[in-house]
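[Automated response] Your request has been received and processed.

Submitted sequence:
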Amino acid sequence: MTLFPFLFASGGTEALAEKLTSMLGGLPPLAIIFIISMIPILELRGGLIAAALLGIPMWTAIGFCILGNILPIPFILLFIEKLLVWMENCKIGFLRKFALWLKARATGPKAQTIRKYEFIGLMLFVGIPLPGTGAWTGSMIAALLHISRKKSVPAIFLGLIMATVIMCIISYGGLSAIINLF
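Generated structure:
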C-alpha cells in the first residue's frame, strides 16, 4: 500500500523502505533507519519513510537519517573514479557494463545542468527527493565532473537539509511537520 502516491508514482521508494524495514525487523528501529539511509536509491527519503512507519519521533529520525546518508559521501567523492576505472578494466563483463552505464548516467543531461550551475545545481539535485536524485548520485556526479570539494560538500549537505525538510513534511504530516521543525 502506497502512503505517498503523489510523490512516488510507482511506490518504489516507499515499497523498498517498507520491505527493508520488515527484513531488518530484528534490529533496533534506529539502526534500521540508519542502514536504510545509507543505501543508494533509498537514502534519506527511504530512512524517513521507514522512521515514520516505525513511529520514531521526527527529530530523532532526522539525526539518524542524515548521519546514515552522509556517511558514504566522503568515500564516494574520494574513490568513485578509481572504483569505476577498476570496474571498467575488470574481466567480469557485467561489472564493466555496469561501470560504463553508471558513468554515462552520472555525466548525462542532468549532470550537464549541474555542471552549468555547480553549487546551486548540485544542491537542488540532492535536495529535491525524486527517484534517481540524492546525495549518492550527487556525490558521484560531483566527483566525475571534478567539481571542487569546497563547492560540492556544502552543496550536498544543504541539499540533504532541503530533502530532510521536504521528506519530514511528507512523512510526518504536512503543516504540523513544518511547525515542529522550527
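Summary generated for your ticket: The CA atoms of residues 127 and 162 lie 5 Å apart. The first helix runs from residue 12 to 23.
If you did not submit this request, please reply to this message.
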